[in-house]
Amino acid sequence: MRIAIFGAGGVGGFFGACLARAGEDVGFVARGEHLQAMAASGLRIRSPGGDFTLERVRATHDASQLAPVDLVILAIKSWQLPEATPDLAGLLGPETYVLPLLNGIETSTCLEAALGPGRVLKSLARIVSRISAPGVITHVGVEPTIVFKETDNSISARVRRLHDLLENAGIRAVIPDDIDRAMWEKFMFVVAVGGVGAVSRAPVGVMREVPETRGLLTRVMGEIEDLARARGINLKEDTVSRAMKFLDAMPADATASLQRDLAAGRPSELDAWTGAVVRLGRESGQPVPYNDCILASLLPLERRARGEVEF
Q: Which end of the chain is more exposed for a tag (fewer CB within 10 A), N or C?
């Protein structure tokens, strides 16, 4: 299968490397020093599951050089999506479909509007990984997993083929009973950990041990749980407690990408995470005061990163 990894960072780079190691025809869309290092020296993966290196990598900044492909694995930041959409469209052949591994809840709808019906799966990734140096991806923790289904919650032939493709590459592949529930569970988790982490500037190990921040995490999650139910999502009763159990098993030094981006002065996914909670809360008539407060607290940093304010 011809696969384009659109965004070769911690998520896309890791999963793409696993697929290439398994013998799939993989091309990476990357940029900057990371792209230069990949082109010169390959792509190195550091992981608790075993380190490996792809000595030769097909990588480019120009997505059109990879077209057409059978599958696009999209692993960029949500705020990059509008700019990337024309390049995505250029990768499409008659049967090409897109597996978006972004952390927002609105990605599939936006992509379908831009690329047309039938082009997109609903999906999410579970992994803690990052670019630790140009050409090097470090997987810190969490079993690498991709969860996916058709947008209407059906299991199609291509969903079954994708499941087998990922499993063959050593990637845990999950076809859930309810993809919308799975996506909202992930969304609830990353929004809470990213938002509270960015405000407190603490890693997961500290947030979960300090009673006040642990309590804040559960309240932020609780608001998102209530919002999901108000929007017709059939969440299980123990959703928040399971999320906190997952948090307790994470590496103590783990942080969310949103927290790292804001701390480094880079644009973040704040609008697609906490911002989406606030927007959807207003749309649904569901109050989300803790998320409102986190958004208001972080907006100055976000706007500074985008050059909209100076301080």
A: C
Cβ atoms within 10 Å of 11's Cβ, excluding its own: 28
Give yes or no: residues 161 and 14 share one domain: yes
Write the CB contacts of 206 (distance below 8 Å, at least 6 apart in sequence): 200, 213, 252
Alpha-helical (H) ranges within the chain are 10-21, 32-41, 81-90, 107-115, 157-168, 179-200, 204-209, 211-230, 239-248, 257-263, 274-284, 289-305
pLDDT tens per residue across span 27-66 = 999 999 999 999 999 999 999 999 999 999 999 999 999 9
**What confidence tens digit (pLDDT) does each residue in 154-169 have?**
999 999 999 999 999 9
Domain span holding position 225: 180-305
pLDDT per residue as tens digits for the range 124-134: 999 989 999 99
In a domain, 109, yes or no: yes
Q: Are residues 149 and 204 in the same domain?
A: no
